[in-house]
Design brief:
311 residues; 2 strands
Length: 311
């Protein structure tokens, strides 16, 4: 049986069996990837270029867009290359890099979404203290904490999982390297150390989830007590995009990792993985810009300036 020292590459799950379908998947993934790059790039550009958007909410949105760009860039380019070149291989180092960067960016994004719920809580429930509690230094510290938490999480998991002896071959039942799939390749009983880290991560996950739920319970209670219908509408319009993004993120994650084993299969796992790795980075810019007048106005202004320069 192969062990971790003798494995130089892993074999990822093929997206399709036939060459025609592989090429179809390549073009489909390329379109999705370009859409994610465009959407998150436009959000980042709008926030960076317009001083009116230099507020805590948009600062966190800029960080979210950068994390989404990183997440989708960690998984899709290799999947597209394998589909195009009709191969399944990924190097040992490349697989470790995928595990590290995906864990880093994914954890940082969840931490950031938790911080964004706090931002909405303070803005609606404690508006008089908003500038005090969420000044520029506080925002930078919270964003750095989100990125730092993701980095620490990724370092611990990657170092632990790639120190395990691998006895079950090198075929990964997923289109990218992720922790559960690498664990399946480890020797029996060797994964207890990583299992402890996973249990700790689950506690952190549900702790953040509880914080988000409590924040929104307080937000809805405050909004429903507002006498002005216009005030209620404005408050809901600032919260609904974040709530939609959080719901999309958490629901796809929970279905991916907590689904019953009876419905688990390589094809189902592949579809679920696409849902939680591809859908949020593509949909988040759409959700945030759909009802956001400030971002729409900034983008129109930027495009107008570009068109004037080329006339």
């Amino acid at each position: 049986m192969p062990n971790s020292s003798s494995i130089s590459e892993f074999l990822l799950l093929a997206l399709a069996d036939t060459r025609q379908l592989q090429l179809l998947h390549f073009w489909l993934l390329l379109g999705i990837y370009l859409a994610a790059l465009l959407g998150n790039g436009l959000i980042s550009t709008a926030v960076a270029c317009d001083h009116r958007l230099h507020t805590p909410m948009y600062f966190f949105l800029l960080n979210l867009a950068l994390l989404d760009l990183g997440c989708i860039s960690t998984t899709l380019p290799k999947a597209m290359a394998n589909a195009l070149w009709h191969t399944r291989a990924i190097s040992y180092t490349g697989c470790a890099a995928q595990v590290f960067f995906f864990s880093f960016l994914f954890s940082a994004e969840y931490s950031l979404l938790t911080i964004m719920s706090y931002d909405r809580y303070v803005a609606i429930c404690k508006p008089l203290h908003y500038r005090t509690l969420l000044g520029s230094r506080a925002c930078a510290t919270m964003a750095a904490a989100a990125w730092g938490t993701g980095l620490l999480h990724a370092l611990l998991h990657t170092a632990t999982i790639f120190s395990l002896p691998l006895c079950q071959g090198n075929a990964v039942d997923q289109f990218f390297c992720e922790i559960p799939q690498i664990l399946k390749l480890s020797c029996s009983g060797a994964y207890l150390k990583e299992f402890g880290l996973i249990i700790f991560s689950i506690f952190i996950f549900f702790g953040c989830f509880a914080f988000i739920v409590v924040s929104y319970v307080q937000i809805f209670r405050t909004v429903l007590r507002m006498l002005s219908e216009q005030g209620r509408h404005k408050a809901f319009s600032t919260c609904l995009p974040h709530l939609a993004v959080v719901s999309l993120f958490i629901s796809t994650c929970m279905f991916a990792y907590l689904k019953p084993p009876s419905i688990s299969s390589p094809s189902v796992d592949l579809v679920v993985a696409v849902l939680y790795t591809v859908v949020p980075p593509v949909m988040n810019p759409i959700i945030y810009s759909m009802r956001n007048k400030e971002i729409k106005q900034t983008l129109r202004k930027l495009f107008g300036q570009i068109l004037l320069q080329h006339q």
